[in-house]
Amino acid sequence: MTQLNRSLKLTRGFRSLEEEAMLNLVRTVDRTQIAFTRLFREHGITAQQYNVLRILKGAGEPLPCLEIAERMITVVPAITGLIDRLEKAELITRERSHEDRRVVYVALSTKGGRTLRALDKPLNALHQQLLGHMSEKELKQLIKLTEKARQNAEDSA
User: Fold this and answer.
1) What is the pLDDT of residues 82-110, one digit of tens each?
2) Is 92 helix (H, G, I), strand (E, B) or coil?
3) What is the DSSP string of 28-50?
4) Does residue 93 contact residue 86 with C-beta atoms inside 8 Å?
5) CA 51, CA 72: separation in Å to the nearest integer?
6) Residue 92: exposed, middle, or buried by beta-carbon count in 10 A (0-12, 13-18, 19+)?
7) What does the longest C-alpha to C-alpha distance in the chain come to?
8) Residues 31-78 pLDDT 10s
């Protein structure tokens, strides 16, 4: 009996190894996401808002909304609403393109930069807490396996 069988209190096995692997992935994402949600909530933002701020910091320049949406870790159906909330919180600024008025550029504000800097140490500590028990070799293997597992899902998206 696997750890997941015991956690879910299953009386019989899974229908396939693929099912067990998938449920392990889902369970892992759920448990780790809870920890990230709590941390982000302490700083007044959501995981998706953090993702936008991180993208803008990494880009080092204002980006169009659609470019941000393409770079998101998770799919965001309503990027405009997400950007609206970040602007209202003064974490980003928006400016229309002078060449094409349909394009809106989004930039990290000073307050947004401060928020990211305040999260640097706690996020690093959380990464260590959640995955620090794994060796470098195991982490590289995990990365490779999750990339491989995600491949067919990305191809069909």
Assistant:
1) 999 999 999 999 998 888 888 889 999 99
2) strand
3) HHHHHHHHHHHHHHHTT--HHHH
4) no
5) 7
6) buried
7) 64
8) 999 999 999 999 999 999 999 999 999 999 999 988 999 999 888 778
Q: Which residues contact 122 (CB under 8 A, 6 or more apart)?
A: 39, 42
pTM of the complete model: 0.86
Place of tokens 């491989």: 148
Provide the token pair at 37: 């949600």
| CATH, domain range 46-156 | 1.10.10.10
Could you tell me which residues are beta bridge partners of residue 95?
Answer: 105
Q: Any alpha helices (H) in the chain, and if so which ranges?
A: 3-8, 17-42, 47-59, 65-71, 79-88, 110-131, 136-156
Gap between the Cα atoms of 69 and 81, Å rounded: 12
Report the C-alpha gap between 82 and 79 in whole angstroms.
Answer: 5
